[in-house]
Write a structure and sequence with these properties.
Blueprint (H helix, E strand, L loop, with lengths): L8 E2 L4 E4 L4 H9 L10 H4 L15 E2 H4 L16 H16 L9 H7 L11 H11 L36 E3 L4 H8 L2 E7 L6 E6 L9 E12 L4 E6 L12 E5 L11 E3 L3
Parallel strand pairs: 6-9
Antiparallel strand pairs: 1-2, 2-6, 3-7, 4-10, 5-7, 7-8, 8-9
Helix pairs in contact: 4-5
Bound molecules: 2-acetamido-2-deoxy-beta-D-glucopyranose (3 copies).
InterPro entries: Papain-like_cys_pep_sf, Peptidase_C1A_C
Keywords: Hydrolase, Protease, Signal
Organism: Blattamonas nauphoetae
Length: about 270
Amino acid sequence: MMFVYLCATLVSGSSWTARTYPKELVDIWTQRLGPVPDVNSEFTSLDSVTMDDNESNDVEFDARTRWPGFISDSRDPGLCSGLYSFAAASMATDRLAIHGVTTTVVSPQYLLSCGPKCRGCKSCTVTETVDNIKSIGFVSESCFPFVSEKARVPQCPANCQNGSKFTPFRPKRVYSQLTVKNDVYTNGPVVFILNIFPSFNRYSSGIYSPGSNETAMGTEPVLVVGWGTDGSNDYYIVKCFRGVLFGEGRGYARIRRLNSLWAGTGYGVEFEQ
Ligand SMILES: *[C@@H]1O[C@H](CO)[C@@H](O)[C@H](O)[C@H]1NC(C)=O
Ligand SMILES: *[C@@H]1O[C@H](CO)[C@@H](O)[C@H](O)[C@H]1NC(C)=O
Ligand SMILES: *[C@@H]1O[C@H](CO)[C@@H](O)[C@H](O)[C@H]1NC(C)=O
């Protein structure tokens, strides 16, 4: 898609720059958002998650430099709102590589088409996604490539596209009780749920935080891949599923460590090595 950005201006009083994305992209991002959790919703009632922790004292960490070549590119789900399957597949891709199991790219389509819970191109919950992973595991992109860019979801086939049987990678453990920095540092990227404020659709670079007068309009999953500080603002580095045009490059953003930005629950998967 041809794409020109007209301005990248510092938003006054903050530490990030804005740009104007094509309207059709912004519309798709907005349409794909999941609900903002209520207090007492499943997001907050799942196991607690500690955003800060006491062990990984590195001031800066970036999984992309810690494990070069093992952190997969952000992928664009197109019109498919099944971002939770994309986030799960991306985390599995990265962690299978980091832990020396395989460097194959994991298929989001398999979860979208074959997951017993929340099948299809819709915004699932963390619980539904975790249930899907536990019941069917993951297969490779070459076994079942992504075809739902237009939100049409094929039935779950009996086999891989070349006719061979599904031989899923089954995680030894899917866990939601984690200290984020420790987990990223030790095991690789983790899935987290970001509250999305209107200004995030204009985020270009820098350390993002919403304006004090903004209200969250939805949620979307991201992978936390690292963290850092610019002295006054601590941030997390996240891989977003908004296509490679978004953010600071290849779909990445830096998000200020404010509780209001996080909708609560994250989770990780662990593979047998
Ligand atoms: C970090 O916190 C955990 C849980 O509170 C505790 O068990 C552990 O000993 C602490 N580690 C260090 C290095 O302080
Ligand atoms: C079929 O595809 C799967 C998944 O990509 C692969 O592991 C397998 O080797 C392929 N089988 C044949 C016969 O090509
Ligand atoms: C929030 O405040 C900023 C200036 O502080 C203003 O430019 C913006 O339009 C306001 N946004 C909303 C949604 O009211």
